């Protein structure tokens, strides 16, 4: 509504509403002295009037003075300036929230991978499935407590919902476990580069499953990702065939999870009580269903024997680090949802690609990874290819 429209639409019989408008405008511009004297004037004026007739006359007189004041502000351009100031403050607040959510997402995402690498490599912990199981248990406990105290709302886990979600949960567990296995043998920088292969598999899957076609820029970026992954593997001084095998399997499972999730989510929403399935409900659903499957895998891979012999479980610092990794895994889900709400999917994708650059550098420096000029060039080339891929996807969406 324009400033003039506001002044015309004010009722002369409602000085309280006008006073509230003046109070808001004055307080937003720091005019506390004028506001205080204006309130005192109104109080004294109404207290001196005893009869209803005289009070009505006073009210109308008071309202007319306020309207005259607003009209003067409109004529002098003050009201328009005040409203522009309020709009500018709102824009700054939105930008601050987007920046804060983006920083929180980047910190939690980088920290999660680095902490997992620290647990698996520095502690030489040889039970990746058990680590995944404990992290998911921490996530279930935290989300359940938040839901119990009313901080968040989650969908109840019904039998119909579990039956629909179970296939995608099996892929989810496989994705987490293979990520643990690969991270134990491969340095963080090469893991981030090899993860680009997931984008290639996903793009091919979208083309055949969803009949979605990509432009030449996207395919060029995907080709550059493959080149960087191959050249990075050839020049990797700490090459480990077992780690690379687990990482390639992880890329296929991650792409399959992404493609399957889109189909399962539509079906799952139909069997929920509210007809919706938000991020919090999916976090609780995925992590809860992963617990019995994780226990079964721990028994099959005989990690119980290792856990009974390792002295790490007697170290308080080890439990602190592993618990921190559980909280970080949960923080990624929350901060990613917060960041998506504040920005858009394209911005989220671009920031995720840019986030790999400091993560790779931190992984090389913190864990003292032996590297060469050729390997560093391949890693940097792959990171740029990821950014180019995100920008190509953004431009494709904007044109469509």
From TrEMBL:
Signal peptide limits: none
InterPro entries for this protein: Sugar_P_trans_dom, TPT_transporter
Keyword Protein transport among UniProt keywords: no
Membrane topology: Multi-pass membrane protein
Transmembrane helix among keywords: yes
Coiled-coil positions: none
Domain Sugar phosphate transporter intervals: 101-388
Pfam family, one: TPT
Locations listed in the record: Membrane
Keywords, in A-Z order: Membrane, Transmembrane, Transmembrane helix
TM spans (from-to): 98-120, 132-152, 164-183, 189-210, 217-235, 241-259, 280-301, 317-340, 347-367, 373-390
Protein name in the entry: GDP-mannose transporter into the lumen of the Golgi
Encoding gene (name): VRG4
